[in-house]
Amino acid sequence: MTQRSLRLLAIVIPLLLVLVVAIVLWRDPYSVVRADFTRQRIAAGLSRDSAVIDDHRWVYAYSDDAPKDAPTVVMLHGFTGSKENWYPVAKLLRGKYRLLIPDLPGWGESQRVDGADYGFLAQSERVDHFIGKFAADPRGVVLLGHSMGGGIAAVVAARYPQQVARVGLIDAAGVRFADNRFGEQVLAGKNPFAVEDEASLKRYLETVFHDARARPWAPWPASSIYINRRRSDAKFEQQVLARIGRSDESFLPGKAAAAIYQPTLLLWCRQDAVIDFSAMELYAQRIPHANRVLLDGCGHMSLVEQPQMVAQAIEMLIERGQTQ
What we know:
Layout (H helix, E strand, L loop, with lengths): L2 H25 L3 H13 L3 E7 L2 E8 L8 E5 L10 H7 L4 E5 L17 H15 L6 E6 L1 H12 L4 E7 L10 H7 L10 H11 L13 H11 L1 H12 L6 H5 L7 E6 L8 H9 L4 E5 L6 H4 L1 H14 L4
């Protein structure tokens, strides 16, 4: 091949790559975000799969890289969240336990069905079926839930105790915590997590993260792509928030928690601006045997802001049923 041909290839190949990327972005802009999620999953040492359970297709991350008799840990994400929120903690637990981290139905990559109920009770039934299909164990599973996922986990542990050996409620929804701006806006019919533009994206991240160093950095065009996705999800988010935040089901997890007898972890961050840490004491009143861990220097996203402390508390729950 001549020098001229090589120079021509050096020009044409990059142009072709740019063209391919442009076509992919035009057809599916969100592929940029998914590609980064894939990078995060691989970095955490997790695999990905999907399955249809009842009327929903679930997508989940998992790791079977664990000792033969290791317990199974199921992790549930929160409102507007996804399985990726758990990856920093999962990376620290992988190799010790079998891990299952689903996108809850309606969220992330899992299927959303028009008109379906995605409140605490309906999702708890779906999680019970998910556990029965993928994590059935006569010893039960370790069920962890963050935020909305914490409320769901509380209901599952109370209603399906044969499925759950231990439960961890992390910054969990489902009780009437001390008034804050987030709670007041929810009760007023607003969605304080709504993202419509760069300003509201900044406000959203500042609300859920106390530690600015842990906030995800999303340069253009990723930020614009994410904003457009959240705009398209606005109606769905309001429907779910009305169900879990303003209906007669809002405090179902707190009421159900009185029936939780399994070893339990309650973990909060003192600077949580979403679900005030007063919620931990309300849950503790209903689960007096629960062990409490209050972290300092983090907000609502303890999973990302202090994953080592969260993983340590989870390990103590699993290994000894208590935390320090």
